[in-house]
Model the fold of this input.
Amino acid sequence: MIKGLSWLSTLNLAKVNSDKTKGRCVGCLSSNAYNGLCVFCQADLPVNQWHCRYCALPMSHAGNELVCSDCLISPPAFAHSYIPWRYQYPVDGMISRYKYNRQHKFARPLIAGFTSYVESVFRDQNHIKPHLLIPSPMLSSRRRERGFNQARDIAEQLGAALDIPVSAGIVRRVRKVQAQRGLSREARLKNLHGVFEVCAKVPERIAIVDDVVTTGATARVLASALRDAGATEIQVWALARTPG
Done:
């Protein structure tokens, strides 16, 4: 069993007698769940403990200021990525069922855990909250096909919980691109060139919100567009990061 995030375990124990604990665990169907997961399934979530300070790529060794080779060679426009889990079992399945089958109950524990994680970061590490959350934009055709934009859904829930405004209209996708799945990081960057357009004034401190960061290409291109539009402190928020 993988050790769970301390902030999530602590939160669960503190709330164990609250009404929110009532309900079935989406992982094992236990009747003693908080925000959709029991303590045992929470402990099985693959924590992204050691990672690149910029893009949150999981690293194999310990350190507080780790930087992956890609970010070392070409630093991104964003300064930090807050991504608590690795995109592995069971998080990958939970996100897929939420994203592709609109089973929102699988996202609930991840979004609740992410909220607690971010609160602890800003409290314990003296980081400053962003002025605005910007969900990664989706083409209207893709949104109609899927039924919703999961990045916007996540951003709106986080914004409500953390009292941070959300704007889904500041940035838009201006053209359709080749499917990113299966492309290398370099190919993804080329594929995304010029795909985002900033439509309004942006504040200095912002966070880009998405469900999963794969190679980081989308976050890089979007952050560059927002930096060119005036943002000076850019963060990336996501539920999970692929191991590479």
